[in-house]
Amino acid sequence: MKDDSRLFRLIYASTPSIAFGTTDQLVGEMIFASSLNNARVGITGLLVADDSFYLQLLEGDRQAVTDTFLRIAQDCRHSGIQLLDASDQRDRLFPNWAMSMLGASESRSRLLARHRKSAMFIPHELSATEAAQFFIDVSVTACTYQDLCPRTVIYID
Ligand SMILES: Cc1cc2nc3c(=O)[nH]c(=O)nc-3n(C[C@H](O)[C@H](O)[C@H](O)COP(=O)(O)O)c2cc1C
């Protein structure tokens, strides 16, 4: 892992484009390409993909995170991008995953229900603190099937 003395974390929410959607294969390919890019610049993080939203955390060197986010923000596979949190940090929440996806499961549904502000979980409604707390919650319960594989799906207990 690169020098983390200037660790930065960014969390954003967006809405998937209909053409892209959230099918396992399409998101899987995107995660695979993303993890290769991210590993090159020392970024780690997590993507939560659902039919109606993406919620992603990126952590690493501030310039690398900024450059990556600006590229992601221009991607036509999603829109309605909203920055939820961008802040200096001491430690990474997901040090082992250059980019991973939180796999759908009953535990994930329960987690989303715990963090929802209205009838459904809508990440755009989260404050910066709530968005960070969501990912902290994931990080303490996450386990992974394939720690060293760049194409990783994380499941929570
Ligand atoms: C929801 C979403 C999340 C993405 N996450 C990342 C990411 O973490 N890292 C990354 O390099 N690209 C990510 N991308 C893809 C970028 O938008 C862009 O297509 C890619 O970085 C271009 O890489 P390339 O120049 O190697 O083709 C994401 C795209 C979407 C729609």
Which CATH class applies here? Alpha Beta
For the biggest β-sheet, the strand order reads 4-1-3-2-5-7-6
The quaternary state of the protein chains shown equals single chain
Task: List segments where confidence is low: pLDDT < 50 over at least 5 consecutive residues.
Answer: none
Number of strands: 7
Radius of gyration: 14 Å
Main sheet attributes: strand count, strand direction, barrel closure:
7 strands, mixed
The dominant shape is globular
CATH topology call: Alpha-Beta Plaits
By helix and strand content, what is the structural category? alpha/beta
Strand content: 25-35%
User: How many individual domains?
Assistant: 1
What would you say this structure looks like, in words?
- It is a single chain.
- With 157 residues, the protein is α/β, with parallel strands linked by helices.
- The chain has a single domain, classed as Alpha-Beta Plaits (2-Layer Sandwich), CATH 3.30.70.100.
- It has 4 helices and 7 strands, in the order βαββαββααββ.
- It has a 7-stranded mixed β-sheet with strand order 4-1-3-2-5-7-6.
- Strand 2 (44-49) and strand 3 form a beta hairpin.
- The longest helix has 18 residues, at 24-41.
- It is globular.
- The chain starts with 6 loop residues before the first strand and ends with a strand.
- 30% of the residues are buried.
- The site of flavin mononucleotide has 15 residues, from helix 1, strand 3 and helix 2.
